[in-house]
Amino acid sequence: MSERERRGPARLELLGLAYLVVDDPNPSYSGVDGSPVQIDACGAGDDADLARRVPGGGFAGRFFVTEWNAFIHFAALDARLTWIGIN
After folding, report:
1. Which residues of 1-29 are buried (b: 16+ CB within 10 A; e: fewer)?
2. Do 79 and 36 meet the contact criterion of CB atoms below 8 Å apart?
3. pLDDT reading at 16 higher than 90
4. Rounded CA gap, 6 and 83, in Å?
């Protein structure tokens, strides 16, 4: 898969969702106006409370939202990624 395809629009479905925590956007960043954002996948953070909530056989991770300077944390049993508009 090319770099361009890895940066294209996609739909992520988290199946068997255990948690989804969205950090407050940094108020000094201007990207909180409803415009599209760039997200980058990261490993799970080191929050012990969230780590205890990961289901057996599941996984945890987080996304960094550049325009917010903030993270979206999640855990689920499975995930499905569908690229949108890529032939």
Report:
1. eeeeeeeeeeeeebeeebeeeeeebeeee
2. no
3. yes
4. 9
Residue 12: both structure tokens together? 């992520």
- Distance separating alpha carbons of residues 83 and 10, to the nearest angstrom: 4
Q: What's the confidence (pLDDT) of residue 63? A: 95
Region for residue 46 given its phi and psi (left: phi exceeds 0; alpha: psi -120 to 50; beta: otherwise): alpha
Residue in 38, 31, 35 with CA at minimum distance from that of residue 63: 38
Contacts with 66 (C-beta within 8 Å, 6 or more apart), sequence order: 31, 37, 38, 39, 40
Token output for 54: 């990961």
